[in-house]
Write a structure and sequence with these properties.
The complex is a heterodimer of chains A (76) and B (771).
Chain A lengths: L2 E8 L4 H10 L3 E5 L6 E6 L3 H13 L3 E10 L3
Antiparallel strand pairs in A: 1-3, 1-4, 2-3
Chain B lengths: L1 H23 L19 E6 L8 E7 L2 E7 L12 H4 L14 E5 L2 E5 L1 H19 L4 E5 L5 H15 L4 E3 L2 H15 L10 H4 L2 E5 L3 H4 L1 H14 L3 E6 L4 H5 L2 E4 L5 H14 L5 H7 E5 L19 E3 L1 H7 L5 H8 L3 H12 L5 E5 L1 H4 L4 H14 L9 E4 L6 H9 L13 H11 L14 H10 L4 E5 L3 H4 L3 H8 L5 E6 L4 H4 L3 E4 L8 E4 L4 E5 L12 H11 L13 H9 L13 H6 L3 E2 L35 E5 L15 E6 L15 H6 L4 E4 L1 H7 L6 E5 L4 E8 L9 E5 L27 E7 L1
Parallel strand pairs in B: 6-7, 6-15, 8-9, 8-13, 9-10, 11-21, 13-14, 15-16, 16-17, 22-26, 23-25
Antiparallel strand pairs in B: 1-2, 2-3, 4-5, 4-17, 11-12, 18-19, 19-20, 22-27, 23-26, 24-25, 24-27
The chains are: A alpha+beta (76), B alpha/beta (771).
Chain lengths: 76, 771
């Protein structure tokens, strides 16, 4: 049951779109910064397989420039 | 319960992300943040210092039952004010790796097998006794660490120096901080910084000398960024040999060729004098000028000896010496433009700017490490920017107790808890406090770290006890020292928490308690002593390193010197140890004070901490009106004439690249702990070699391809990183050393500063081949 948190960096000018894109994904909770072009993302997937699926979805988001991981828990 | 635990982990994840964002973007705001407080009721929070770098962040450890389950920054600790870095947030996970050593191991028929702890301790004591009887007291040795808790180092020093009577006591801080120590001693007569982290809040300019603080001291770096954000006019200048995350966050990045920081520092002083920016009043009252020996060698041969000799000179002689270091001349040596040299000099020289210089391994792991420390002090002393809030030449430490244990307790061959073995008065004091005959303490130092491992290879040392460090990953020119340690007739004891390449070569492995599984103290970079309680139980047969030493000492017949009970020995040791520092220049806080607070800075006099030394406004030991450099017999700080001299080994036609080594944000030293934290390991699973894109292009090397790095001593194959986290200039490669599967120290050179004996891990010559 992996839980991760990230700082999510949008492509320039796409912060609002990235907020929409991430919010639309299952297992994601998003908190945008009010004064900086970054978002905090917390993911909570039921197992490793779904975690991998989610990671693949992130790679396809055009509004997402990069994710910087800040915390992780994997029940390992 | 599982839902509550899940919610708790998610809250922790969210808190970590917000704190990390606050570190990267000071002043950042998140709506609804107050609603994300961690659930309470199931967690008991206990204070401790972080056990990783020398910053000394205060942590609060969340404990549920007997298990440490969470970490947050301690808002009451002035060091980090509630912040943490990624290692700190994951620090409790180092306690729970699957392969934690919980039983003693003894080598039998070539294999390490589990054994009762008592049998292992008996064997350690009997082997020590046997070695002393057959080969003499100087055939046994202990090699510890800047991650030793203070009582560990104190017990080791007392046992080996006081009871056994050998000065074969060293610690890995020799290869981490020794140049800082000799720099302080030669310039000021006393060790450790005059300033403190509060300088970060006062400075207008920060100049970092070869120091990637964004990765190595991220919490302090974030405090610098916060200061810049709040004041607006603050400048951060990154002066380094490669481009890093620190360069990217700085206002200006200036690159210099390896080793030429010596020349640039002298050129800055030349410009300060030429422009009449010298603080003449300060210099005339508080500074004297000196020169030492030159062409001092590199220590690459066994039994290398060097002793410097100071000669007093006058200002005019010093000024004449600097004529070799005009900005134009130094531009040719260093690659730093004369304009940039003048820019740096103008920052230091501006009377309206408070300047703090930071450095760490870039200056200390240097074959002229003592000299470059002296030279940066020269700059600050010429302009009088020292010992006042915001004006600080500041040597950061790499390990949590390099200062507290190694430098203050004195776990180096020449040191005692107060002073040095060479001085009769210091030996007398130690003998009295330790309750041993004065003749027990040998007045002659034996081996510094590199020479100690050479002695093990030669057979002069036959028994070595290694605690809290992993030299079979970190020793330079590693193959020689690994082969030497494995020779017949050597007996190696390793106190460890996880299997490492060092425990692999051991004859006995003692299972150690880790950090918050035992009570202890650390001492950080800013003279702050920090206490931690035992917060959770020790697993299996693990034992505190201090108690391991006590058990062996008693088996050797030293019950009288190690009389303490298991309930109170840490407090008893603290009370005994602090007798060594019972003077206004170094008085330590009492046990009760340390137990109650998130660290206390020494000198601690009449209930007050000392933030800035040598300044009577803040330092109770300082006399007079303004400054008092009481460490030196002339009550002055010393400016030194130290020339530029080349590195021990430079690139040539056969080995055309500089090799630079260092750390990364995610991993602590050799990764023996942080690589057991799944998240940190996944974030940075293996070491790599950073190559400049132009070099890579010319050799047909692409990102991710395999490269062989070859020196005159060995080779290692790694993955290429091009335009990654760091970017070395053309002609240089950089490799992090945390990965035991890619032993870069088989390639490095065992050259050291002849004064400090600290190894230079930043410079040797290599060639590259596509693998």
């Amino acid at each position: 049951m992996p839980v991760f948190s990230y700082i999510a960096y949008p492509e320039p000018g796409t912060k609002e779109q990235l907020l929409k894109d991430l919010t639309a994904l299952k297992h994601c909770e998003v908190m945008p910064s009010e004064n900086t072009d970054v978002l905090v993302l917390v993911t909570d997937t039921p197992d490793e397989a779904q975690e991998k699926v989610l990671q693949e979805k992130f790679k396809k988001l055009k509004s997402l420039q990069s994710l910087g991981m800040t915390y992780g828990h994997t029940d390992e | 319960m599982s839902i509550t635990r899940r919610a708790f982990i998610k809250s922790l994840a969210l808190n970590s992300a917000v704190a990390a964002a606050s570190t990267l973007f000071p002043g950042i705001i998140f709506a609804g943040w107050e609603k994300t407080d961690l659930p309470s009721g199931m967690i008991d929070w206990k204070k401790t210092p972080c056990r990783f770098c020398g910053t000394g962040c205060g942590l609060l450890i969340g404990v549920s039952g007997d298990r440490a389950v969470a970490v947050k920054g301690d808002p009451n600790c002035s060091v980090n004010k509630g912040l943490c870095c990624v290692k700190g947030y994951h620090s409790v996970q180092i306690l729970y790796g699957k392969d934690r050593i919980q039983k003693a191991l003894i080598r039998k028929n070539g294999k390490l097998v589990e054994a009762p702890l008592k049998e292992a301790l008996d064997l350690v004591a009997s082997k020590m006794q046997e070695t002393i009887e057959k080969q003499g007291k100087d055939a046994v040795s202990i090699y510890g660490s800047g991650q030793w808790s203070i009582p560990d180092g104190y017990a080791a020093s007392k046992l080996f120096k006081g009871c056994i009577g050998t000065n074969n006591v060293e610690a890995n801080a020799r290869v981490c901080m020794a140049s800082a120590v000799t720099g302080f001693f030669t310039s000021f007569g006393l060790d450790e910084p005059m300033g403190c982290y509060e300088d970060i809040d006062h400075a207008d300019v920060f100049i970092t000398w070869g120091n990637n603080m964004a990765e190595m001291h991220p919490v302090l770096f974030s405090r610098m960024l916060a200061n810049r954000k709040s004041k607006g006019h603050v400048e951060i200048i990154d002066f380094a040999t490669r481009t890093t995350r620190s360069s990217q966050a700085s206002d200006k990045s200036i690159l210099f060729k390896p080793q030429t920081d010596l020349a640039v520092a002298n050129a800055i002083c030349y410009e300060i004098i030429r422009n009449n920016w010298v603080n003449k009043d300060f210099v005339s009252k508080h500074v004297s000028f000196h020169k030492g020996k030159t062409n001092i060698g590199y220590g690459t041969q066994d039994h290398f000896k060097f002793k410097d000799k100071a000669e007093t000179v006058d200002f005019e002689t010093y000024k004449k010496f600097l004529e070799d270091y005009t900005p134009e001349k130094v531009e040719k040596i260093s690659g730093v433009s004369a304009m940039d040299i003048r820019y740096l000099a103008a920052l230091y020289g501006d009377p309206d700017k408070k300047v703090t210089s930071f450095w760490c391994m870039g200056m200390n792991q240097h074959t002229r490490g003592t000299w470059i420390n002296n030279l940066v002090y020269n700059i600050h002393l010429l302009v009088g920017k020292i010992s006042t809030p915001g004006n600080s030449p500041f040597s950061l430490t790499g390990q949590p107790s390099a200062c507290g244990t190694v430098r203050e307790v004195g776990t180096l061959t020449h040191k005692l808890p107060h002073g040095v073995v060479m001085k009769e008065a210091h030996r007398k004091m130690a003998a009295k406090i330790w309750n041993v005959p004065e003749k027990n303490i040998d007045p002659k130092p034996t081996y510094h770290t590199v020479e100690m491992f050479r002695a093990l290879d030669r057979g002069d040392i036959r028994f070595m006890w290694i605690q809290v460090t992993n030299p079979m990953v970190t020793m330079p020119n590693l193959r020689r020292y690994r082969d030497g340690a494995k020779k017949d007739g050597r007996f190696v004891v390793v106190s460890e928490i996880y299997p490492t390449p060092t425990s692999d070569i051991a004859d006995v492995v003692l299972p150690s308690a880790l950090w918050i599984e035992r009570e202890g103290f650390f001492g950080n970079s800013e003279r702050r002593t920090q206490h931690n309680d035992q917060i959770i139980p020790m697993p299996g047969d693990t034992m505190c390193n201090t108690w391991q030493l006590i058990e062996v000492a008693r088996r050797l017949g030293f019950e009288k010197q190690f009389p303490w009970s298991r309930e109170t020995y840490i407090e008893d040791i603290w009370n005994e140890y602090t007798r060594f520092h019972d003077n206004p220049k170094h008085r330590m806080a009492p046990y009760k004070e340390l137990k109650a607070r998130a660290g206390v800075q020494w000198p601690f006099v009449d209930g007050m901490e000392t933030k800035w030394r040598y300044n009577p406004k803040y330092d109770p030991a300082a006399k007079g009106k303004d400054f008092d450099f009481y460490g030196k017999p002339d009550n002055r700080a010393w400016i030194w004439m130290r020339p530029y001299e080349p590195a021990a080994e430079s690139p040539d036609s056969d080995y055309p690249f500089w090799l630079n080594t260092g750390r990364v944000l995610e991993h602590w030293h050799t990764g023996s702990m942080t690589r057991r934290v799944p998240i940190l390991h996944k974030a940075m699973p293996a070491s790599y070699v950073e190559i400049n894109p132009k070099d890579a292009d010319s050799m047909g090397i692409t990102n991710g391809s395999k490269v062989k790095i070859i020196s005159r001593r060995g080779s290692v194959e790694m993955t290429a990183s091009i335009n990654g986290r760091g970017n070395p200039p053309k002609g240089m490669v950089f490799v992090p050393f945390f990965d035991e599967n890619h032993l870069i120290n088989e390639v490095t050179l065992d050259a050291f500063c002849p004064i400090s004996k600290q190894v230079d891990y930043k410079k040797c010559a290599v060639k590259l081949e596509r693998a």
